[in-house]
Specification:
Layout: E1 5-10, H1 16-27, E2 30-33, H2 34-48, H3 55-64, E3 67-71, E4 78-82, E5 85-86, H4 88-91, H5 94-97, H6 100-104, H7 107-120, E6 126-130, H8 133-137, E7 143-148, H9 151-164, H10 171-187, E8 200-203, H11 209-223
Helix pairs in contact: 1-11, 2-7, 9-10
The structure holds cytidine-5'-monophosphate.
Cytidine-5'-monophosphate binds at residues 12, 34-35, 38-39, 100-101, 104, 130-133, 181, 185.
């Protein structure tokens, strides 16, 4: 069976990562969370005190940043490593969510991340979730799913995830963050968030995670 590239794109907090992870596990594929990579760059720039309009410093930073993923031995969680250090919890904080779309809109940042993502998937047999996988990173992906859901539902899910990690954020603040990110992600000039012409739409408002996973696995088995 030929290994596929499965691209899962869509709006923030639609369940893309949870679905992508489960699909990858079911197919014994690699999983790449591309949003985590943009979050990692944002964290690096913040900690290095680099302004988001200082292009010379950002260019240098992109040479200095090494992003990889490590699988947690007991939980199996895919954890983001920034320059060799696991920073998974740090990149999920609201302070990063509030700034990441500014950083991901910088063309130089996108070029570096897209090139790395293409290298990570070059052997295929990968599930990648993000905003531009089906349009820019792997326009030849055999399976393309574009996820959407009502914003209130997405915000509640995100609120529960944050609460589980001990971060309590008001629903209105999460809704504002999701709306802002969706707007910035969809309107940037470089590989904006949009549905590829050949992507199938999946509205996750009223369906469970296991239904989302089955939906993608069905598409994958028809592509095999
Ligand atoms: O997926 P997640 O919500 O963690 O993504 C964080 C942010 O990273 C998005 O809001 C978007 O700005 C950026 N992103 C992107 N392209 C991708 C994946 C994420 O621009 N392929």
């Amino acid at each position: 069976m030929k290994p596929l590239v499965i691209a899962i794109d869509g709006y923030s907090s639609c369940g893309k990562s949870t679905t992508a992870k489960a699909v990858a596990a079911a197919l014994h594929y690699a999983y790449v969370d591309t949003g985590a990579m943009y979050r990692g760059v944002t964290l690096y720039l913040l900690e290095a005190g680099i302004a988001f309009d200082d292009m010379a410093a950002i260019e240098q930073a992109l040479h200095d940043i090494h992003i990889s993923f490590k699988r947690h031995r007991t939980t199996g969680r895919n954890e983001l490593c920034l320059n060799g250090k696991i920073r998974e919890d740090d990149i999920r904080q609201m302070r990063i969510s509030n700034l990441v779309s500014e950083v991901s809109g910088i063309p130089m940042v996108r070029h570096a991340m897209v090139a790395q993502q293409q290298r990570m998937g070059r052997k295929r047999g990968v599930v990648m979730d993000g905003r531009d996988i089906g349009t820019t990173v792997f326009p030849d992906a055999e399976v393309k799913v574009f996820m959407t859901a009502e914003v209130e539902i997405r915000a509640r899910r995100r609120q529960e995830e944050l609460a589980a990690k001990g971060e309590h954020v008001e629903l209105v603040d999460i809704i504002e963050n999701l709306r802002k990110r969706d707007y910035l992600d969809s309107t940037r000039t470089e590989s904006p968030l949009r549905r590829a012409a050949d992507a199938v739409l999946l509205d996750t408002t009223h369906i469970t995670i296991s239904e989302q996973v089955d939906f993608v696995l069905d598409r994958a088995s028809s592509a095999l």
